[in-house]
Amino acid sequence: xxxxxxxxxxxxxxxxxxxxxxxxxxxxxxxxxxxxxxxxxxxxxxxxxxxxxxxxxxxxxxxxxxxxxxxxxxxxxxxxxxxxxxxxxxxxxxxxxxxxxxxxxxxxxxxxxxxxxxxxxxxxxxxxxxxxxxxxxxxxxxxxxxxxxxxxxxxxxxxxxxxxxxxxxxxxxxxxxxxxxxxxxxxxxxxxxxxxxxxxxxxxxxxxxxxxxxxxxxxxxxxxxxxxxxxxxxxxxxxxxxxxxxxxxxxxxxxxxxxxxxxxxxxxxxxxxxxxxxxxxxxxxxxxxxxxxxxxxxxxxxxxxxxxxxxxxxxxxxxxxxxxxxxxxxxxxxxxxxxxxxxxxxxxxxxxxxxxxxxxxxxxxxxxxxxxxxxxxxxxxxxxxxxxxxxxxxxxxxxxxxxxxxxxxxxxxxxxxxxxx
Amino acid sequence: xxxxxxxxxxxxxxxxxxxxxxxxxxxxxxxxxxxxxxxxxxxxxxxxxxxxxxxxxxxxxxxxxxxxxxxxxxxxxxxxxxxxxxxxxxxxxxxxxxxxxxxxxxxxxxxxxxxxxxxxxxxxxxxxxxxxxxxxxxxxxxxxxxxxxxxxxxxxxxxxxxxxxxxxxxxxxxxxxxxxxxxxxxxxxxxxxxxxxxxxxxxxxxxxxxxxxxxxxxxxxxxxxxxxxxxxxxxxxxxxxxxxxxxxxxxxxxxxxxxxxxxxxxxxxxxxxxxxxxxxxxxxxxxxxxxxxxxxxxxxxxxxxxxxxxxxxxxxxxxxxxxxxxxxxxxxxxxxxxxxxxxxxxxxxxxxxxxxxxxxxxxxxxxxxxxxxxxxxxxxxxxxxxxxxxxxxxxxxxxxxxxxxxxxxxxxxxxxxxxxx
Lengths: 421, 421
Hints:
The structure is a homodimer of 421-residue chains. Chain A has 421 residues and is of the alpha/beta class. Chain A is built from 15 helices and 16 strands. Chain A folds into 2 domains: 3-226 and 402-413, Aldehyde Dehydrogenase, Chain A, domain 1; 233-376, Aldehyde Dehydrogenase, Chain A, domain 2 (3-Layer(aba) Sandwich). The interface between A and B is large, with 66 and 66 residues.
């Protein structure tokens, strides 16, 4: 395909999504839920077609030498379809976020003023291999009245196009514009670059994937972009910590699922308890397969640990590796977090309320916990009912983003001829 | 000054603002209010020094051939200082936005979860000639616990530096870091470009000024930017309008202050009432000095009006000029607004509730009014108590932005050892 034609084609797709977003903003929750229900149903009815498309992606991926892990992420089988359909039905059961009056007042001149929650409009999702995102993310966008443009990975294109046909049929059956979900029919960078310039048509970009992808998108995009660069999360074991609780939290935060963004990457231990805490904690971490890297003071207590440097304080291992640093007091812990963290999630373990509050107030992060595992920073754990991502930005949405964070608001004023005096 | 040295200097200023923002986030409202009060007091005490600096800017501006209007905007005399001090004292009287618990829940695992309002951090304000912005904007940033980096126009540099000394002294007197307000000591573009790349140090950019400035900043910035490109606001006179009310609203929206963003730029008249509405309304607009430009159907009723084209539908005149278009019904009005408007403020005049609600829901704009002048889209009119700007973006803040919109939130979880299962 020619580059010019290709850019034109994705521009038309985006324009169609913009037009569809106008209808979606005015649609009722029942129509949007009906589309989600039909899509869930079609995943079962069309499973053979979807599996065939996925098989073509898998074959091409194997031929291209994708790793076993990547092939695994690319697979979209009956079990995945059932899980995805169940997820869509959970989203259906969530309350409609739209139309909520967020604030209301009667102005002195009699104007009845409301802030009302409305959809953002058109959301461009950029993601990598997992095809389930094509269903999950579009489902959340539709539930919140937004049109979605989905740009998945090159390796999943056939599967994503098959899932796009599911969406088109489901939307049509519910009386909603099929263009409400647009699948970018190419993984060509030129097409993506064309989309990232359409700030008059697309309202929000959400890139999901590795830090490289997100930085590249954020740099190119003229459209507001919600970013999640990385999760360098900390647990700080304070001098007044219950050391048993601290050990359980540390092990859970590191080991329970090390490959995700809310797993702990650096453990900060107060100098006052380092002697008592380190030996047993390290034993348990090692038993769970964790490789330890420590500062000089850590290594005085545990000399077998390999030395940690600045690159470790900045590292998002996403693996069974843990950096450990001994610090002197809450202020030093907060300073380490603010200097080296990624503003994602931090936790202090202590029985001292004043120390806890100092830490909670001082850490400039989306989620701050007292006596709890960093792994709890999650849309479902927070009761949002869904999660489109976790923002480490401070604007618009911070931390786990659910349906409400896919919305904006408008000011609605109802008057009787009020003028400016 | 060498370019390398200059970039280094503004980077240091930004780093100092970042450090200051950590203290501000933990500061009490009384300290922040004390700084504002001291700054208001210093405007009177230091008026001679400030006027001398302003006189140097005015002389240089005259020498550089600035227009009378620009010279007027640049002037910062005793009267302006008194007004600015009064404005700061109004901000002091507003409630502290920080620490508010926006939502709270006890999770099934016992975690006590809160969303708490906190400052954004470091805000870069970019603006043009008016030196009062140096006091007003910094005052709002400080009140909301944010550090401010202020980059005013080249022509106001001496005045702004004098006002920066006022801030430094006021902050010091209140026990807050003087670096909480940083004046960029140069109008060199290289220095600004260096700042716009510091996405690890600056959290938010708010450019205020002409569309060209804002587009240039938005394009360069790697930092989230809140934009207000322009205000192409509409009034739609519906078939069921009270035509007297409609005329009063139209005249107010166009004439009361034509040079501001919430003034009406295009008048949409329903074909059903065009014959009855146009003659008297146009007479009154002309009497107020308004130049009219109309579509073909308008000119059939008022042939003396000069023809309007697409450039008029897109125009932000900011002047006593009005584009007029006859449309067929609410849907056509909404389509015109969404196609040509700037998503700022629109108003429908009608006695028909259903028509009004269709317009309010259909217009994709920050503020939508029923039977009220577009001029009412304003932070003070909305009861925000202050206004840092009006956003035509949909992310983070939409429409008038007050103190709460200068804040973000963090998730605070207090537990008793909760783990992820």
